[in-house]
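idk why but the lab printer keeps eating my pages so im just putting this in chat instead. protein + adenosine-5'-triphosphate:
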Amino acid sequence: MTVDLQNVGVTLGGRAALAGITARLAEPRVAIVGRNGSGKTTLARVVAGLIAPDTGQARIGGIDMARDRRAALENVGIIFQNPDHQIIFPTVLEEVAFGLAQQGKRPREAEAAARAMLDRFGKAHWERAATHSLSQGQKQLLCLMAVLAMRPRVVVMDEPFSGLDIPTRLQLMRYLQKITAQVVMITHDPGHLRGFDRVLWLEGGRLIADGPPDRVLPDFEARMLDWGGSDDLAHLAC
Ligand SMILES: Nc1ncnc2c1ncn2[C@@H]1O[C@H](COP(=O)(O)OP(=O)(O)OP(=O)(O)O)[C@@H](O)[C@H]1O
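predcted complex ->
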């Protein structure tokens, strides 16, 4: 699957959150890095078809995600930074079945497919669990299972590891390695990018570096440390 960004620009609150983003992403694992407010979440939302760019286009497999909501639902899954913003149902099974029903499956089919997904992750016993009773890490995993159940070709993740303890993070990273879909992941932590093929570095809504991790990350880390050591708040992105 290829995510094709052509001169993508987005204006929010009268300011350019993204400008002139052009990249053709065909690699299985793509990361988006950058400071707070650099436009990462906005770009993730554009890729997922949740925001229509003000200039340019975002296409997946040749289809404009913002114009074709059905294709977006079929092709792209997004996992938000905070699972509490994503989970809407009282039980785990309902939560996983919901997206499948939205894709047109009948209730029984949707539930069967939801059970199969829970089983795949060794979580069949979660079926009747109350979603509000899950821990933060368990909620992250639930969101991942709910999105994967829809069999997206591209999974967009906005800092999926924030707030997780080390064992839970390592477990989720292992689950991610099993995903056959293309992954586009936002992170602040270069340590989360083992096995990634490409890194996009955003600053002030612009793409300032784009390439394999060993080429982009050393400069990124050096710049972050440099800014972190400075007390000049003028360097803050917003
Ligand atoms: N709804 C909005 N209205 C106005 N400005 C917005 C809105 N959403 C985001 N912005 C601005 O757009 C810019 C990019 O925000 P975005 O959330 O994409 O950054 P980010 O890189 O994901 O940041 P973080 O690392 O803090 O999550 C910021 O300057 C932000 O203040």
